[in-house]
Specification:
Strands 1, 2, 3, 4, 5, 6, 7, 8 and 9 form a nine-stranded parallel sheet that branches. The chain is built from eleven helices and nine strands. It has a domain of 225 residues: TIM Barrel, CATH 3.20.20.370. The protein has 348 residues and is of the alpha/beta class.
């Protein structure tokens, strides 16, 4: 009985669901599976890391190349240097500079500047002109150059004696000059010609080297605009009127068109007297610029100078510009002209 009992116990131990041997086998199988799975995952991780490292390396190479390219571009740019700090000028000098700037904006003209420069090389000769016999008072013709706009015309028309407005040919900047000129009994054309130094020449300015055909075409065009005007004086022209061939062509064309050239004398080297003598033509030329400065007292002194020349020679020609100061002086200078007669240029 006891033997049978022990036998049954031994049998039950061998045939139990969780015998030690089975448990060991199960554990071993689980551990092996874990090792395999871990190994596979580790292998995949290593492979992935290698791939990422490769991609990272490629990306780093690209970034390095971009940085190198940007460095080369920056190195190729002009080197910047800190501007030198200018010393502050005393207040008095600053005021003086502002004053000179304002005058430059309003007054200096290429005609006046170039004429003064030319006098250094070709000094003005003393006035030794045979006096012309006039009945009555000596005559003075005042030409007002650069007339372009309605407000200028309005002020000129207030002047209570004869003056000679000289109008620019029409352009986009001043398209109304033809219409404006019609309100005057006598007027002139201010003909743009090439200067030695002038920043903003008028469109279709006559230049040294222009053919006689080009000059003729330009004069005929202007003549169609201003059919009643017979007297033309040059605007700027310090280079053009100093060139013998250019003046010769212009005077020949104007003679053929029955027009009269008036020399503004923007250079002491002008060839206009020489060419006028060659063709036996009468030539009037400027004696005085009235507004070398727009200071009213200096304008009055220039008027006195023009009157003095008129008294010595019997006539004089003065040129000025439509500055507000100039026109105001002329408006109120009637008493200054008591010893001369203000006339149109055609009446000299």
């Amino acid at each position: 009985m006891a033997k049978n009992s022990r036998k049954k116990k031994k049998t039950s131990k061998k045939s139990g669901l969780f015998s030690k041997k089975k448990i060991a086998i199960v554990l071993l199988a689980c551990f092996s599976s874990f090792i395999v799975v871990y190994g596979i995952n580790y292998f995949n991780m290593i492979q992935s890391q290698k791939t990422n490292d490769k991609e990272t390396s490629i990306l780093m190479d690209k970034m390095k190349k971009m940085l190198d390219d940007e460095k080369k571009r920056i190195d190729s740019l002009p080197k910047y240097s800190e501007p030198k700090k200018s010393k502050k000028l005393p207040p008095v000098i600053i005021v003086k500079q502002k004053k000179e700037k304002n005058i430059k904006k309003d007054s200096p003209f290429s005609e006046i500047q170039d004429y003064k420069k030319s006098l250094i090389k070709y000094p003005k000769k003393p006035l030794h002109v045979k006096k012309k016999e006039y009945s009555g008072k000596p005559k003075l013709a005042i030409i007002i150059d650069d007339v372009s706009f309605a407000h200028e015309v309005k002020l000129i028309k207030k002047i209570p004696y004869k003056v000679n407005p000289s109008f620019f040919p029409p352009t986009k900047r001043h398209p109304g000059t033809v219409k404006l000129s019609k309100s005057f009994a006598f007027k002139m054309v201010h003909l743009p010609t090439e200067a030695i130094s002038y920043a903003k020449p008028e469109p279709e300015t006559l230049k040294v080297g222009d053919s006689i055909g080009q000059i003729r075409k330009r004069i005929q065009q202007i003549k169609r605009w201003f059919p009643s005007i017979k007297y033309y004086n040059n605007h700027t022209g310090s280079k053009f009127t100093a060139d013998l061939k250019s003046v010769d062509k212009l005077v020949r064309v104007m003679r053929d068109e029955r027009l009269h050239f008036v020399d503004s004398r923007t250079t002491a080297q002008t060839k206009a007297p020489q060419i006028a003598k060659k063709y036996g033509l009468k030539l009037y030329s400027r004696d005085v610029f009235l507004d070398n400065s727009i200071d009213k007292n200096l304008i009055r002194k220039q008027i006195e100078k023009a009157i003095s020349i008129a008294k010595k020679r019997g006539y004089a020609v003065a040129i000025c510009h439509p500055h507000k100061n100039t026109l105001q002086v002329l408006l109120n200078a009637k008493s200054m002209f008591r010893d001369v007669e203000l006339v149109y240029l055609k009446d000299l």
